[in-house]
Automatic annotation (TrEMBL):
The lineage of its organism: Eukaryota, Metazoa, Chordata, Craniata, Vertebrata. It is a multi-pass membrane protein. Keywords: Cell membrane, Glycoprotein, Membrane, Transmembrane, Transmembrane helix. GO terms for cellular component: plasma membrane. Residues 292-874 form the Anoctamin transmembrane domain. Residues 66-289 form the Anoctamin dimerisation domain. One of its GO terms (biological process) is calcium activated phosphatidylcholine scrambling. Belongs to the anoctamin family. It is found in: Cell membrane; Membrane. This is Anoctamin. The chain crosses the membrane at residues 303-329, 381-401, 466-492, 513-534, 678-700, 734-754, 830-851. One of its GO terms (molecular function) is protein dimerization activity. It comes from Dicentrarchus labrax (European seabass).
Length: 918
């Protein structure tokens, strides 16, 4: 079998693949490629022969970041398996991959990159292609990507911090200044190749940082063609990685994380990051954000800046929440309400109505003594204060973050990134086959879809998201049915058929608690399963929508995922807080779900303790599961990989092969980090009125999260391709939406889920009722006033308990007239007073908090005054140095114009206006 036979076999396979690509919309007909690439097989063979990566032996320098000549820096690594050493049965597939790879590498070299291949030390089948960008190519693509570079040192005087006198106290909590030195500040401007002399450059080799070089190299790799046949053009390293042509593509770490490199030209930034940031021993230190940004790029840097700022702000919320919890814990035994429930003379004498039909029995109120004490820990007046405080806290957090983000945008040169710099995604460029007129420039441009096509894509995405949201709601309904059925089973099992049933239950076992815990665990498992399924659907739909830029892609995916996660994580909490126990009727006329299951009732103290249980299980389970995924799995995978690729002899392993043994970085890895924290932010703010310890748990989790994420990306993963990012993207408006919703949810939890408003109404107006003395303002008698009376003779045949124990009346949680009253079992006046107080509370609290939020957002500017001054100064210098200087040079080249010339020019213009044929 010769090369022509192999090519014919490849042509058939390629034709089938092209047809599949056409159906999937993966064909590009408008991407511009170099003219020297001709769509013929002979050109491919010639290109592969002439422009082939030079094969070089490893020079036994494990920490070297250069080609074997020690001069050209490695900007990217490509890894593939040598097809010549594969089995012959799959030779045609391997030949197709080889042909595409050779074409791709020829494309890279014709685009100006330099390549050098080196065989693996561990596996002789592996080959590593080192990519280097020469100076001219760097300058060209720095201008294409509008990379900002220094033009002049910052000459604006910085105002000293008023807290500088305390620096000796805070110094131990900052990274070592001896290891991580502070970089000089510069005014920067978008690079222009023709005006290189006006940029501040000490050394040509360090003018472009390694992260800049890697970013430019990846830009070229993403757009270099690997096959052109007729009008069909395919390009991009992403598709080659997906097709198995290359096994990996990544930039290099500059050294080992735990050993300092001995190379003179190595900055050892990875080693410094581990020592001062990712090392567990440095958990108490502030993050070296500038070094993180320099090494990993602005996108990684802004994430850790946001996470660190969020964690610092959580310390205040956690302190207040912990104080509220301690107050509740210390007052649980002195609370009049809990004492009456536990008192044998009061709660022990109150017989409660069954909470389900037939099998459920009568029970005494003091059987919920322990639950009522725990409820008092979370349901007290301190919780009201804390809920209002958190509403103000979340506003301060968002406003101060905007200010801090504005400072980072200026310092990291991303102020105008989204408007000027971000290029289209290669996947978008590859499918531009339609023309449209640009509304801004008025010039015709290529787009991947028509207006109808875009409408169809967006509609399909919206429909899919809505379908999955309804699927979640269906699962919630199923869990509710489970709660009703299991509550019935627990009630029948825990209560015997004799009078001892009226005695308090042992420990904390109640049907409500047992049902709540098991339902919460099942809900958590369902949440995790649906997350895995929906994740793939959301990515597929977003790919189908074909957003133009990566920011648009991430924003679209973020919105889809968050809508799903919002319903998935919070729906069970919303059910317990605002649905459970709200429409149950009364024992003689209960409300049924699906016509079969009697609606679930709350404990006499309310559903707040169940909401607290649900939150603690989901928050704790989510944190444990995420840590297992983020820490344990990458570590185990790396351990297994090293075991199967271990070297028996004392061979020297090069830097690029050490990095290949690490885990690859997911393209959406940072997205899941944001999603995890934003979901946590929702738990901390939306339901904090029921769980004051939520900020404490979030703070502890985040202190670990920062170091875990740092350790993970520094030690277990390959180096991330540096990316620019102006801010946290679509997460910013999502956080703002959660903050607005949190005010309403906490006010409604206090009003409808907690028992606080009925207590306040009783405390201030119970003198109109025959309980207690108004002048004493005491809560004595509240339990008796909050429970209505029901006659057992009014049970229907379907709901009549099997064992009645000759009990004539029982009590239930509601405000209704007793039997024998002209309006028996209708709501009494107390009920309407409570409803009016709840609505008034919600309206007053919401208006006060929203007004405060509006005033704070108006008073606190989004951009600090000093940053605005620096931005104006930088724009002025850019205008003066790069534009007016060139204008002067152009003016000097012009010949001086005398008065006679001006007169002749004016006369000529006048004659042309009079006679166009002149």
């Amino acid at each position: 079998m010769d090369d022509n036979d192999i090519f014919e076999m490849d042509s058939v396979a390629d034709t089938e693949e092209m047809e599949a690509d056409t159906e999937l919309g993966m064909i590009d007909e408008e991407v511009v490629y170099p003219q020297e690439f001709l769509p013929t097989y002979e050109t491919i063979k010639e290109g592969a022969t002439v422009a082939k990566a030079q094969l070089a032996e490893f020079n036994d320098k494990p920490d070297s970041l250069f080609f074997n000549d020690g001069v050209r820096r490695i900007d990217f690594i490509l890894v593939y398996e040598d097809e010549d050493k594969k089995d012959f049965e799959k030779r045609h597939t391997f030949q197709r991959r080889k042909r595409r790879r050779e074409y791709f590498e020829a494309s890279l070299m014709k685009m100006g990159l330099e390549l050098e291949a080196t065989q693996s030390v561990i596996d002789e089948k592996l080959l590593f292609v080192k990519v280097h960008m020469p100076w001219d190519v760097l300058c060209t693509y720095a201008e294409v990507l509008h990379i900002k570079l220094p033009i002049q040192p910052n000459d604006l005087s910085c105002h000293p911090s008023p807290w500088r006198c305390l620096s000796f106290l805070t110094k131990p909590f900052y990274p070592s200044e001896e290891l991580i030195t502070k970089e000089a500040e510069f005014f920067t401007a978008a690079f222009e190749k023709d005006r290189l002399d006006y940029f501040y450059m000490k050394d040509k080799d360090t003018f472009f940082t390694p992260s800049m070089r890697s970013r430019m190299a990846y830009y070229i790799l993403s757009r270099a063609p690997y096959e052109i046949r007729g009008n069909i053009k395919k390009f991009g390293i992403t598709k080659l990685l997906g097709g198995g042509v290359y096994k990996a593509a990544y930039p290099l770490h500059d050294c080992r994380f735990n050993v300092k490199s001995k190379e003179d030209d190595c900055p050892n930034e990875r080693y410094l990051l581990y020592q001062e940031w990712a090392n567990p021993k440095s958990f108490y230190k502030m993050q070296p954000l500038d070094l993180i940004r320099k090494y990993y790029g602005e996108k990684i840097g802004i994430y850790f800046a946001w996470l660190g700022f969020y964690t610092i702000m959580l310390t205040l919320a956690a302190a207040v929440g912990l104080g509220c919890f301690i107050y509740g814990y210390r007052t649980q035994d002195t609370s009049t309400w809990s004492k009456e429930v536990c008192n044998p003379e009061i709660g022990g004498q109150i017989v409660m109505c069954p909470q389900c039909d037939r099998e459920c029995k009568f029970w005494r109120l003091n059987s919920t003594c322990e639950a009522s004490k725990k409820l008092c820990i979370f349901d007290n007046f301190g919780t009201l204060v804390f809920a209002v405080f958190m509403s103000i806290w979340v506003t301060l957090f968002l406003e101060f973050w905007k200010r801090y983000q504005a400072e980072l945008e200026y310092e990291w040169d991303t102020v105008e990134f989204l408007e000027q710099e971000e290029p289209p995604r290669p996947e978008y460029e590859a499918k531009c086959i339609y023309e449209r007129k640009n509304p801004v420039t008025g010039v015709k441009e290529k787009v991947p879809y028509t207006a109808c096509g875009r409408c169809f894509r967006v509609s399909l995405g919206i429909g899919t998201v809505v379908f999955w949201i309804f699927l979640i709601l269906a699962s919630i309904v199923a869990i509710i049915v489970y709660r009703l059925a299991v509550f019935f089973a627990f009630s029948a099992k825990l209560r015997t058929q004799d009078l001892r049933e009226l005695e308090p239950l042992k420990e904390y076992v109640t049907p409500q608690m047992a049902t709540s815990v098991t339902a919460s665990l099942i809900s958590f498992v369902v949440i995790m399963i649906l997350n895995v399924l929906y994740e793939r659907v959301a990515i597929w739909i977003t790919d189908f929508e074909l957003p133009r830029t990566k920011t648009d892609y991430e924003n679209s995916l973020t919105l889809k995922m968050f809508l799903f996660q919002f319903v998935n994580y919070y729906s069970s909490c919303f059910y317990i807080a605002f649905v459970k126990g709200k429409a149950v009727g009364y024992p003689g006329d209960p409300v049924y779900l699906l016509g079969k299951y009697r609606n679930e009732e709350c404990d006499p103290g309310g559903c707040l303790i169940e909401l607290t249980t649900q939150l603690s299980i989901i928050m704790g389970g989510k944190a444990i599961w995420n840590n297992i995924q983020e820490v344990l799995l990458p570590w185990v995978k790396n351990l297994i990989f090293r075991y199967f690729t271990r070297v028996t002899s004392q061979k020297v392993i090069p830097r690029w092969e050490q990095d290949y043994e690490l885990q690859p970085v997911s393209q959406l890895g940072l997205f899941y980090e944001y999603l995890e924290m934003v979901i946590q932010f929702g738990f901390v703010t939306l339901f904090v009125a029921s769980f004051p310890l939520a900020p404490v748990l979030a703070l502890v989790n985040n202190l670990f999260e920062i170091r875990v994420d740092a350790w993970k990306i520094t030690t277990q993963f390959r180096r991330v391709v540096p990316e620019k990012a102006q801010h946290i993207g679509a997460w910013q408006p999502i956080l703002g939406g959660i903050a607005i919703l949190a005010v309403a949810t906490n006010a409604m939890i206090i009003a409808f889920t907690s028992d606080m408003i009925p207590r306040l109404v009783y405390y201030w107006s119970f003198s109109v009722y025959p309980y207690g003395n108004y002048s004493n303002h005491t809560m004595e008698g509240y339990i008796n006033s909050s429970l209505s009376i029901f006659s057992t003779s009014h049970f229907s045949n379907e709901s009549m308990p099997i064992a009645t124990y000759n009990i004539t009346t029982c009590r239930y949680r509601d405000f209704r007239y007793p039997p024998g009253h002209p309006r028996q079992y209708e709501y009494n006046v107390y009920y309407w007073h409570v409803i009016a107080a709840k609505m008034a509370f919600i309206i007053v609290v919401e208006h006060i908090v929203y007004l405060t939020k509006f005033i704070l957002s108006y008073v606190i500017p989004d951009v600090p005054y000093a940053v605005r001054e620096q931005i104006k100064r930088e724009k002025y210098l850019t205008q003066v140095i790069l534009h007016e200087t060139n204008l002067k040079l152009v003016t000097k080249r012009l010949k001086p114009i005398n008065e006679e010339t001006l007169k002749d020019t004016a006369m000529k213009m006048a004659m042309e206006e009079l006679d166009p044929d002149f």
